[in-house]
Amino acid sequence: MFGFISKNLKSLFSAVSSKLNVLFNTSKIDQETIQEVEKILLSADTGLTVARQITQRLQQDYNAGKIATGQELKKLLASYLQELLVNASINFDMNNSKIYLLVGINGSGKTTLLGKLAQKYVQANKRVLIIAGDTFRSAAVQQLEQLVSKLQVKVISGAADSAPSAVIYRGCEEFKTGNYDILLIDTAGRLQAREDLMRELAKVERVIQKQLPDQAVTVLLTIDATLGQNSLDQARIFSAHVKVNGMVLTKMDGAAKGGIALAIVNSLKLPIAYISTGEKLTDLESFDTQAYIASLLSSNQA
Ligand SMILES: Nc1nc2c(ncn2[C@@H]2O[C@H](COP(=O)(O)OP(=O)(O)OP(=O)(O)O)[C@@H](O)[C@H]2O)c(=O)[nH]1
Ligand SMILES: [Mg+2]
C-alpha cells in the first residue's frame, strides 16, 4: 500500500520535487535558496500562509547558521512539514465508525467515494446499507446504483425532488431494524455559498442523530484537489454547518498540485481521512503523512 501511495503522489509532485532536489544537491546555501523554496512551495499549491510560515522558519535557521548545506535544508524542511501535518492523519479512526455522511460541493467526488467505501466494507465482510440522499440531481440514484451494482448491497432511495431528510429518515429506520454493520449516506452537491443548502445539510445531520442517537456519525468532506485555494473556503464553511470529522482529497491523480493538503490541514486542523486517486472503486488510499512528505522531497521515481 505504501508503495502504491508514494508512486501516485510521486507523479503528483515530480515537478516540485525535482526543483527542490536541485537545491538539496547544492553544496552552498544562500539567501536566494530560501526564497526559491518559498516559490517552489507556492507552485505546489500550499498557499501563501504555509509557504511563508515554513520559509520564515528556514530563514531564522539560516540566520542562525544552521543551514549551510542542501542536506541540512532538506532535513529542516522535512521536519517543518511533518510538524505541520501532525494533525493530518491522527485522530481519525475509521474502525469504530458505523455511519458515514458524505458532503461536499458539486462534482467533488462524493458518490464515487461512497462506491469505494462500500467496496472496502463489503470486502471486509461487513453488511452495508446505502442511502441515496441526493434527491436533487435526477440521475444521481442511477449513478449510485450502477456504481455499486456488483456489490449486492441495498440502496434506499427517494422520489426525485423529495426532501433529502425524508429518504434519510427512512434509511435510518431500515438500518435500525435490519441487520447491518455500516451505513453510507450520499448527499447532493452544494456550493458553500448557498446558505439555504448548508442549512439543509445541518438538518440532515440532525435527522440522523435523532434517529440513531447511540451512533457516532462520521462526516467526510470531499475536496477536489484540482481546485486549489478555493478548497480552503469550502472546508471552512462546510465545517461551520456540520461537524466535519475528516476530509477526503479527491482527484489527486489528475491536474492536482497536492500541496493543498498542507494548506487545509494548517488552517483547519482537520484530519485527512483518505486520498482518492482515480475513478475505479479501488483507487482509494489512507493518507500517510510520511509517504506524502517523502514524495514531496524525494526526486527518485518509484
Ligand atoms: N480522476 C478522478 N476522477 C474522479 C475521482 N473521484 C471522482 N472522480 C470523477 O469526478 C466526477 C464527479 O464525481 P462524483 O462522484 O459524481 O461527484 P459528486 O460529488 O457525487 O457529484 P455531485 O453529486 O454532482 O455533487 C465523476 O466523473 C467521477 O468519475 C478521482 O479521485 N480521480
Ligand atoms: Mg453525487
Summarize the structure.
This protein has helices at 2-24, 31-43, 47-63, 70-84, 110-123, 140-147, 164-177, 195-211, 230-241, 260-268, 289-297; strands spanning 99-104, 128-133, 154-157, 182-187, 217-224, 244-250, 272-276, 284-286. With 302 residues, the chain is of the alpha/beta class.
Could you state the CATH homologous superfamily of the largest domain?
A: P-loop containing nucleotide triphosphate hydrolases
Work out the count of structural domains: 2
**CATH architectural arrangement of the largest domain:** 3-Layer(aba) Sandwich
Broad shape: elongated
Helix content: 40-55%
Tell me the strand percentage band: 5-15%
Question: What name does the CATH topology of the largest domain carry?
Answer: Rossmann fold
DSSP, total strands? 8
Rounded average pLDDT: 89
Total of DSSP H or I helical runs spanning 4+ residues: 11
**Can you tell me the residue ranges where pLDDT is under 50 for at least 5 consecutive residues?**
none
Give the helix/strand class.
alpha/beta
**Mind describing the biggest β-sheet?**
8 strands, mixed
Bound molecules: guanosine-5'-triphosphate, magnesium ion
CATH class identity of the largest domain:
Alpha Beta
